[in-house]
Write a structure and sequence with these properties.
Layout (H helix, E strand, L loop, with lengths): L1 E2 L5 E3 L3 E4 L5 E5 L3 H4 L5 E4 L2 E10 L2 E5 L7 E4 L2 E3 L17 E6 L1 H7 L4 E9 L5 E10 L18 E6 L4 E3 L5 E4 L1 E5 L5 E8 L7 E2 L6 E2 L5 E4 L9 E9 L7 E2 L3 E5 L1
Parallel strand pairs: 14-23
Antiparallel strand pairs: 1-10, 2-9, 3-4, 3-8, 4-7, 5-6, 5-9, 6-7, 10-11, 11-12, 13-16, 15-20, 17-18, 17-21, 19-20, 21-22, 21-23
């Protein structure tokens, strides 16, 4: 999910030069007539300006004029954003009022409408944190050239169908803990990391494929044997999605009792 004004950006061909106080951008080996349109927002050294004219492949006019030190031979990016909004109008990530580009996968995972969504996070009269969303522009399909992540609208949501369950086993036997989880939308690559705490007062630590445990990064973790020394230990699994933000979903705890 790309945060408008911060993450969604298309790298422009070539390099650019800017002059403090000037309302122009000069390109080298750029193709402005192909890659840019009037109303797009260009970003140079963390400063944004709206393109108001395209003179040639190597010359743009912008508003407002640059308020940064002179640059030369630097890369520039093009923000993918609603053209009716001012350049840099939500560049402060810590703001509670944000505009997001929500693509089709993110919309499915979060019951949203794909498009540009305005989000207002506030505290109600009872002290509860609330979030209101307003669709600024909706699309049947939508994607961004880059898809840097944030936590407002994850690309995927993980749904646990079967949690690992506590069990009592005979000393010296091989055993397993298993979780069943799916992604919404389906098709995500799910990463697993099984963890163990020695007892209820101990911290969890990642298991590794050495000695007793194998398949520590799979849906089912295997034990070579169970001894009385590990009785009362607690297991869980952390899950994340490759390339998405369904991250750090944690299973229920499961206790191993050895008799």
């Amino acid at each position: 999910m790309a945060l408008w004004g911060n993450n969604a950006a298309l790298a422009l061909t070539g390099t650019v030069a800017t002059t403090n106080g000037s309302a122009t951008v000069t390109g080298t080996s750029t193709v402005f007539t192909t890659e840019t349109k009037v109303g797009d927002v260009i970003k140079v050294n963390s400063t944004f300006a709206k393109i108001i004219g395209i003179t040639s492949n190597t010359a743009l006019t912008i508003s407002p004029a640059w308020s940064i030190a002179n640059t030369s031979g630097v890369s520039a990016t093009l923000k993918q954003s609603p053209k009716h909004l001012a350049a840099g109008s939500d560049t402060t990530v810590q703001s509670v009022n944000l505009i997001y580009g929500v693509d089709v996968n993110e919309a499915t995972a979060n019951n949203e409408i794909p498009g540009w969504v305005y989000t207002n996070i506030y505290t109600d009269t009872h002290g509860n944190i609330r979030r209101k969303s307003e669709v600024l522009a909706s699309f049947a399909t939508m994607s961004t050239a880059t898809d840097d992540e944030d936590v407002a609208y994850p690309d995927y949501r993980l749904v646990i169908g079967t949690q690992p369950t506590s069990k009592s086993v005979t000393s010296g036997t091989a055993n397993t803990f298993t979780i069943v989880v799916t992604s919404v939308p389906t098709g995500a690559t799910i990463n697993y990391r099984w963890q163990r705490a020695a007892n209820a007062n101990a911290a969890f630590a990642d298991l590794t494929n050495t000695g007793t445990w194998t398949n520590t990064t799979a849906a089912t973790v295997n034990f070579a044997n169970s001894t009385l020394a590990v009785s009362g230990s607690i297991y869980r699994v952390q899950m994340s999605v490759t390339g998405g933000t369904g991250a750090n979903t944690v299973s229920a705890n499961a206790t191993l009792t050895v008799v």
